[in-house]
């Protein structure tokens, strides 16, 4: 599902005089339906790697093939489609819109290419996803009226509205207490197993990492498989 070869990312330093190498020569292969944890110290480039896979950022060198498509060869329109439909994102901060209800937040990424006929289906699908994440009773609430753990589960439902084949999660439990973290990881592993959703998760938690089928460590610019 994901094949990364010889991937490198560097940024110019603020003065523009030097280059900051975040990671170099990264290889990673993730099979369809697998789940991968990426661990490593703060600042090691985990978010950068995830952003590059999700095309929120461009690699400096190397090749990324997702679902048999070479990401460097995508047209502008295909890039938007890739970000909106092939991959789903969950971040440490939920980024829900406070003035929209839980249901509206989940529907939002589905509104691109929206038409009148599809609106009923979109709403049904959002309701069904909220049911699946255990929030069928919270659809009319606003983000400020639900708990942190619930907000993060809304973010997971939202990431799935366009039926992505890959879910990229960047420290999704980073702001949650232990009980809510466990609940969220259970949800992600259930989605991975039941929907064959390929999952790549950055985490600081050894417990969360151990729930993934494979684990890699990013440190000092290199990615190494731990199991
Ligand atoms: N847009 C950017 N411009 C310059 N440097 C960046 C940028 N984004 C990230 N970096 C640098 O890349 C390194 C890795 O950051 P990050 O991917 O956020 O690490 P992690 O998620 O592992 O904590 C850091 O040293 C950071 O300063
Ligand atoms: Mg990070």
Describe it for me?
The two termini are 19 Å apart. The chain has one domain: Rossmann fold (3-Layer(aba) Sandwich). Strands 6-7-8-3-9-10 form a six-stranded mixed β-sheet, with helices on both faces. With 227 residues, it is an alpha/beta fold. The protein has seven helices and ten strands. The mean pLDDT is 95. A hairpin with a 2-residue loop joins strand 9 and strand 10. It binds adenosine-5'-diphosphate and magnesium ion.
Describe this protein with a few key phrases.
26% strand; alpha/beta; binds adenosine-5'-diphosphate; 227 residues; Rossmann fold; 4-stranded antiparallel β-sheet; globular; binds magnesium ion; 7 helices
Secondary structure elements and their pairing?
Elements lengths: L1 E11 L6 E12 L4 E5 L6 H8 L7 E6 L2 E2 L5 H11 E4 L11 H6 L8 H17 L15 H12 L6 E5 L7 H18 L2 E5 L3 H5 L3 E6 L2 E4 L2
Parallel strand pairs: 3-8, 3-9, 6-7, 7-8
Antiparallel strand pairs: 1-2, 1-4, 4-5, 9-10
Helix pairs in contact: 4-5, 5-6
The structure holds adenosine-5'-diphosphate and magnesium ion.
């Amino acid at each position: 599902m994901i094949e990364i070869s010889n991937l490198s990312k560097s940024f110019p330093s603020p003065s523009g005089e030097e280059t900051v190498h975040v990671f170099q020569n990264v290889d990673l292969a993730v099979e369809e339906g697998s789940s991968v944890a990426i661990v490593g110290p703060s600042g090691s480039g985990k978010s950068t790697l995830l952003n590059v896979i999700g095309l929120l950022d461009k690699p400096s060198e190397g090749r990324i093939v997702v679902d048999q498509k070479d990401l460097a060869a995508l047209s502008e329109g295909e890039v938007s489609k890739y970000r909106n439909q092939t991959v789903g994102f969950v971040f440490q901060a939920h980024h829900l819109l406070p003035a929209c209800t839980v249901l509206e937040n989940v529907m939002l990424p589905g509104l691109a290419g929206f038409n009148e006929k599809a609106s009923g289906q979109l709403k049904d699908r959002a309701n069904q996803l909220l049911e699946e994440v255990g929030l069928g009773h919270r659809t009319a609430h606003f983000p400020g009226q639900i708990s942190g753990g619930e907000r993060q589960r809304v973010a997971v439902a939202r990431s799935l509205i366009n039926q992505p084949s890959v879910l990229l999660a960047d420290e999704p439990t980073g702001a949650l207490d232990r009980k809510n973290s466990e609940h969220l990881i259970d949800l992600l592993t259930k989605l991975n197993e039941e929907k064959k959703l390929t999952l790549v998760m950055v985490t600081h938690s050894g417990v969360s990492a151990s729930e993934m089928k494979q684990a890699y460590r990013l440190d000092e610019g290199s990615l190494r498989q731990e199991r």
